[in-house]
Amino acid sequence: MPERNKQFGLYGARGIKGHEAVARRLDALAGYIATPVTARRGLLARLHYLTRTDHARAAAREAGLTVTDRTLRAWLHGTRSPSRANLERIEQAYRTVRRENVARYLLARLNREGRGTRVEIHPLNQSRVDRPRQRVVEFRTLNVRHWDRIVQAWAAGDDQELDDAWVDQIVDLGSQWGQYEYVTNIGFAA
Q1: By the 8 A CB rule, do 141 and 120 touch?
Q2: pLDDT at 163 over 90
Q3: pLDDT, average across residues 18-32
Q4: SS3 97
Q5: CA distance to 1, 48, 83, per residue, from 108 (Å)
Q6: pLDDT value at position 82?
Q7: What's phi and psi for 75, nearest 5 deg?
Q8: Residues 6 or more apart whose Cβ sits within 8 Å of residue 162
Q9: Which residues are CB-neighbours of 34 under 8 A, at least 6 positions away?
Q10: 48 φ/ψ angles, rounded to the nearest 5 degrees
Q11: Run of H or E including 76
């Protein structure tokens, strides 16, 4: 696409890709367990979430948590503790399963029966850019009515598809949409 930035930050601008900011906001709306997995309480909460039903166990195995039931029981009872690699697998499986479980509800709340959700786009930070090279990039709002591709890509963890889906939405900003490829923050509620 002609508006894509090739050398972002060359003159000192700071920001993150718009789809990364959207993913962060969706993660915040998903409501993950706040206690870290390294703490006993956080580990137990994640393991209970991943093992409370047969469907949850199957989803956890599909997400990469491939340990035996005996090992899971030992972790739950505290007779053994998982290795660092297994803690990372537990966290990844938990986030994957949580995203899949929450995606349907988030999608309904964001689409709001076709009315969509108002999104605030905070432009990139140009405080380190020399004055002659700064450009005027203002705060923008946009009503996103079709969240299907965005939420599906987020739930699947597909960054490229999320980027493409987000760019398809910000094209509605008109000829200036490329100025909002990198942002400091994107805000919306559901």
Answers
A1: yes
A2: yes
A3: 95
A4: helix
A5: 31, 27, 38
A6: 96
A7: -65, -45
A8: 19, 22, 23, 150, 153, 154
A9: none
A10: -65, -40
A11: helix 69-77
Instruction: Summarize the confidence of residues 140-152 as an average pLDDT.
Output: 95
The CA distance from 25 to 125, in Å, is: 19
User: What is the dihedral sign for C-alpha 8, 13, 14, 15?
Assistant: negative
Is the Cβ–Cβ distance between 182 and 13 less than 8 Å?
yes
Q: Which residue has the tokens 């203002």?
A: 138
Residue ranges with strand state E in 43-139 = 117-123
Mapped onto helix, strand or coil, the DSSP state of residue 16 is strand
> In this model, does residue 3 exceed pLDDT 70?
no
Q: What's phi and psi for 51, nearest 5 deg?
A: -125, 5
At 28, the pLDDT band (50, 70, 90 cuts) reads very high
Region of residue 8 (phi > 0: left; psi between -120 and 50: alpha; otherwise: beta): beta
Query: Which are the contacts of 174, defined by CB distance < 8 A and separation ≥ 6?
Result: none
CA distance 91 to 76: 15
Of 168, 142, 137, 183, residue with least CA distance to 17? 183
The model's pTM: 0.87
